[in-house]
Amino acid sequence: MTDATHPFDALMEITARPSVVFVRGAGSYLWDDSRKRYLDFVQGWAVNALGHSPPAVAEALAAQANRLLTPSPAFYNGPSLKLAQALVENSCFDRVFFANSGAEANEGAIKLARKYGAKYKNGAFKIITFEGGFHGRTLATMSASGKKAFEPLFEPKVSGFRKAKLNDLDSVKALISDNTVAVMLEPIQGEAGVWPASDQFLKELRALTKEHGLLLIVDEIQTGMGRTGRLFHYEHAGIEPDIMTLGKGIGGGVPLAALLATEHASCFEHGDQGGTFNGNPLMCAAGLAVLEEVSKPEFLKAAADAGLFLESELQKLSARHGLGEVRGRGLLLALDLKLPIGASIVAEAFADGVLINSPQPDALRFMPALNVTREEISLMIDCLDAILVKAGAARRVA
């Protein structure tokens, strides 16, 4: 497919995309090459924590680009040391390994757990994950995921992953064996339709893993960096995991991810883990700029308040149209549509200049910038309300 300005055919076809080209972004808005403006409640799938092209990140990148791009991971660099220290100071973890994507961070977590099993648990290597979970698109992370669409792809998968049911502790207990080394989960399953693990389940899971000497790995690729109103989601449950992965929001729009671990779980030896661009100063400078802003108590409170407002407005919308529950926490929320009409609503909203996401046919997902305003939330709600009225998608009762 081509048009007069843009040749689309050179890109490998891996997903359906609308034939518009975005050329500029600022805060909660994107503009395409015809100057049409879009209100963005996807933000690169929860990537742009501070919105599009935030000045703090742009300035950090420009300043660092004029100093040093990368000296190679064989040497220390200032931004990576500062960012690692800041992450440690703001979490329950002691060590940080930087990566380029969430999938790579999760791959590292899997490798670290298996290394731990080899060193301390007689070669235990199995990791309990969860139905509906999504951990990335490498072979190992696809194998760890509980996404049904992945099951027939790229066989044979990496072995060693058994799937429990979210919020069902007995299903976890039933899978524990002498070969089990860890339990890995997303605190909120985003791709599955925004299904949260309850705080009580997370507490019980932490107790169970300690009882059996297992590592607890939290995949906070989507929930971390203030997305749920705390810097990290595990804080809501008052637990301390052994390993955590971060991605998406940590870079504020650039490819950056992190694997964090306690001293107890940090068992990599020289040569076990690495990566050409991992921890490069350019990306870490951006990460520092994001963390410095997002970790401010007043910023987190404002994000939490925005999340409560969005949740309230979605609940009102649901009541007006006879729809289902609002799930999630903070600024990672889903609206249950009760009907498989998500794709058509997304398309209508796009035509009206609003970007939303439908991770499942019967649900809409909302992942705005953490500094989204009430006015922007209201504009999105008004757009969605008009679409539901126009389409007659559900019964209007108020």
UniProtKB/TrEMBL annotation:
Domain of life per record: Bacteria
Enzyme Commission (EC) number: 2.6.1.11
Positions bearing N6-(pyridoxal phosphate)lysine: K248
Catalytic function, reaction form: N(2)-acetyl-L-ornithine + 2-oxoglutarate = N-acetyl-L-glutamate 5-semialdehyde + L-glutamate
Amino-acid positions noted as binding pyridoxal 5'-phosphate in the UniProt annotation, renumbered to this chain: G102, A103, F134, D219, E220, I221, Q222, T276
UniProt cross-references to HAMAP family, sorted A to Z: ArgD_aminotrans_3 (MF_01107)
NCBIfam families: argD, PRK01278.1, PRK03715.1
Family of this protein: Belongs to the class-III pyridoxal-phosphate-dependent aminotransferase family. ArgD subfamily.
Other comment: May also have succinyldiaminopimelate aminotransferase activity, thus carrying out the corresponding step in lysine biosynthesis.
Name under which the protein is recorded: Acetylornithine aminotransferase
